[in-house]
């Protein structure tokens, strides 16, 4: 014997839901709170997922050149520039977000995950008045030869087919 869930409709009065005696205004507010909580939880889980050991916090103004023995990749306008990089084993690649949106760099093979790299701050009315700040950066040192593809997890290749990159590491 199974129990069926019954839904009893009550006479509807102005300002009340027809399925419960909860005022509509209170119900709408509760639904909005649930949606906001869900979105915050989704954004938090999308931003994590990697080790922070390679993440650096941007400091100062403008962009800094990569240190000797490293290569630089700029993220801007839903692209990695350069898209293809060839380096030697032991070289560090540093990705810097220079675009107006947050982005990531995530290895297709699971070797690295930058987490969310913030867009640069611009000061002014919306930037908090603190002056220009560089965008988020992430660096990873390649210790083995091979070809390593990557993408932005916020803007996946299924929706942004050209937003991918390749690092070729030679001995």
Determine the strand fraction and express it as a percent band.
25-35%
List the domain count as a whole number: 2
Return the CATH architecture of the largest domain: Sandwich
Overall geometric form = elongated
For this structure, what is the CATH class of the largest domain?
A: Mainly Beta
Give a nutshell description of this structure.
The chain is 14% helix and 25% strand. The chain is of the alpha+beta class and 171 residues long. The strands form two sheets. It has a five-stranded mixed beta sheet with strand order 1-7-5-2-3, with no helix packed on it.
Looking at this protein, list some descriptive labels.
four-stranded mixed β-sheet; 25% strand; 2 domains; Immunoglobulin-like; 1 helix; elongated; alpha+beta; five-stranded mixed β-sheet; 14% helix; 171 residues
Task: Write structural notes for this entry.
The protein has 171 residues and is of the alpha+beta class. It folds into two domains: 13-47, no CATH class; 52-170, Immunoglobulin-like. It has one helix at 24-47, and strands spanning 55-56, 70-76, 79-81, 84-88, 92-97, 106-107, 137-141, 146-151, 164-170. The strands form two sheets. A five-stranded mixed sheet has the order 1-7-5-2-3, with no helix packed on it. Strand 2 (70-76) and strand 3 (79-81) form a beta hairpin. It starts with 23 loop residues before the first helix and ends with a strand. Residues 44-62 and 123-131 have low confidence and may be disordered.
Please give the structural blueprint.
Layout: H1 24-47, E1 55-56, E2 70-76, E3 79-81, E4 84-88, E5 92-97, E6 106-107, E7 137-141, E8 146-151, E9 164-170
Parallel strand pairs: 2-5, 4-9
Antiparallel strand pairs: 1-7, 2-3, 5-7, 6-8, 8-9
């Amino acid at each position: 014997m199974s129990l069926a869930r019954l839904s009893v409709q009550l006479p509807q009065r102005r300002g009340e839901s027809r399925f419960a005696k909860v005022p509509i205004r209170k119900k709408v507010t509760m639904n909005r709170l649930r949606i906001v909580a869900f979105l915050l939880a989704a954004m938090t889980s999308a931003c994590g997922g990697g080790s922070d050991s390679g993440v650096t916090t941007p400091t100062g103004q403008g962009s800094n050149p990569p240190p000797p023995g490293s290569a630089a990749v700029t993220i801007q306008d839903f692209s990695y520039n350069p898209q293809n990089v060839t380096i030697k084993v032991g070289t560090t690649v540093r990705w810097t977000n220079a675009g107006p949106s947050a982005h990531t760099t995530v290895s297709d093979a699971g070797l690295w995950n930058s987490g969310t790299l913030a867009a640069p701050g611009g000061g002014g009315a919306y930037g908090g008045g603190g002056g220009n700040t560089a965008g988020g950066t992430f660096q990873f040192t390649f210790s083995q030869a091979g070809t390593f593809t990557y993408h932005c997890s916020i803007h996946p290749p299924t929706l942004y087919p050209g937003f991918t990159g390749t690092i070729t590491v030679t001995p």
